[in-house]
Amino acid sequence: MSKSLFRKKSLTSILQEAKKNESDAHASGLKKVLTVRDLTLMGVAAVIGAGIFSTIGQAAYDGGPGVIFLFVLTAVTCGFTALCYAEFASRVPVAGSAYTYSYVAFGELAAWIIGWALILEYSIGNIVVAISWSSYFNNVLEGMNVHLPAWLVTDYQTAKEAFAEDPAKALAWTTAPIVNGWRVIMNIPAFLIVVLITIVAYIGIRESKKSANAMVGLKLVVLAVVVLIGVFYIDTSNWTPFLPNQFEGVLKGVSAVFFAYIGFDAISTTAEESANPQRDMPRAMIYSLIICTIVYVVVTLVITGMVNYSEFNNVSDPLAYVFDKLNMEKVGYVISISAVIAATSVILVFQIGQPRIWMSMSRDGLLPKRFAKVHPKFHTPGFSTIVTGFIVAIPSLFLESGIVTDLTSIGTLFAFVLVCGGVLLLPPADKSTKRFNLPYINGMIIVPVLFVAFTFFFRERIKEAFVNIAYFDHELVLFLIFYILAAAITVLTLIKRLSLIPVLGMLCCLYLMIEIPVSSWIVFFCWMAGGLAVYFMYGYWKSKLAPKTA
């Protein structure tokens, strides 16, 4: 059984299946319409969303203006990972993202775990964004003197807590209709936007890309206006101190900031709809990452220069807030509108990505065949798209608006670690072919030097972790696990002369993982346990690689 858990798909068999699907319109039928520009804009659409219009405020409060270092660190981490994704995308140009890549490198069990983690990444991520969209959309309507009933724009738990804090202001709770003793409270705008976006994703990739491109163009123009106006109101004294809470304060925003960056992963799910995936997908990943990092750093410097970082605590709309603070409410209102558009584009890209991962898992036999069925007219994975819509739309009606992004970040970082590690297990590439090849840099000197430097700078924390291990402090245990894994990876790099870029990608992702709260890890492990139960009850036996019985 241990062998069958790690049964792998070969590169040859995957490429043969891809050619078969491409030639058989009924088996695949996905339209190859995405260019490098479309793929790049899709990455930008997913990355520049709720992060820059919402969570950037709390991250700036925790880390001060120096939070830009976190954006740079995250971008570098994602850069290493993007290069590994690009290597896989150029050699395995099929849908499925990290799931398919893990199937090639590590085998079926790891692929299933990653596929299950990606369900968490895309679904929870989109629920969070949909709830954020609802909040911004309601603010825009309020500015137009359109007032929706309070019980239709929030969730039950948030309304109940608001009533407990101040009954006079808890309109959602006090005005909600009561049916059989229960107050009817639901987030209708969040539900409707998911339904509408699911319809767009269902109708076709061509329509989806046009919508995404238009929204990206508009929000980039708005952000450019924010910077051009805001730069004249910068008070450089607001940048002092630059790191008010030292680097520990900067790292508090890991989950929020990394959550904003995970969108480039969605590019790899559309490989079969790319006109030239081996050439265009690697370029698009790197282009989108560079564009988004520049935008995040510049915007952060501008808003922390306009208003002191200490004022951003619990501010959910930091860009609009800084202009309202300077009595420029009209600019703030325009920003709120662009935030609605930005969140819409994120939902669209994620609603496109999730069905294509399920489609790949279904083709391999790990999910029922219906998930792989492509609509004969619209040429999209129709059933998977509908299921994705239900999984996101229904919870967005009722779940709390305070859902943390930590779960999404854990799932994504876990996938990134396996993608970086998987590149090291691939057979040598043919350098003569015209496609992206990850440059080989021998890590046997650089990685040990970096490990020694890390040990020196974190010597107090390492000592504390070893001394207090008996007390089972969860954060120290996570740090100790990372340190031991980093030591093992360093030794392997020294012995086997491993390539530097994937090794640095693994180490950076592993470190960011330990900065996520322990409570989220517990939920993540419960989710993964449920996924393993599903695999052993269905996927293990139905897999196309399972041995056939007589």
UniProtKB/TrEMBL annotation:
Which Pfam families does UniProt cross-reference here?
A: AA_permease_2 (PF13520), AA_permease_C (PF13906)
Record carries keyword Membrane = yes
* Ranges that cross the membrane: 39-61, 67-86, 184-204, 216-234, 254-272, 284-307, 331-353, 378-398, 410-426, 438-458, 470-491, 520-541
Topological type in the membrane: Multi-pass membrane protein
Where on the tree of life does the source sit, at the highest rank? Bacteria
According to its UniProt record, where is this protein located? Membrane
Care to name a GO molecular-function term for this sequence? amino acid transmembrane transporter activity
GO cellular component terms given for this protein? membrane
- Name the InterPro entries for this protein: AA/rel_permease1 (IPR002293), CAT_C (IPR029485)
Transport among keywords: yes
* Alphabetical UniProt keywords: Membrane, Transmembrane, Transmembrane helix, Transport
Ranges for domain Cationic amino acid transporter C-terminal: 500-543
Q: Name it.
A: Amino acid permease
At the highest ranks, the source species' classification is: Bacteria, Pseudomonadati, Bacteroidota, Chitinophagia, Chitinophagales
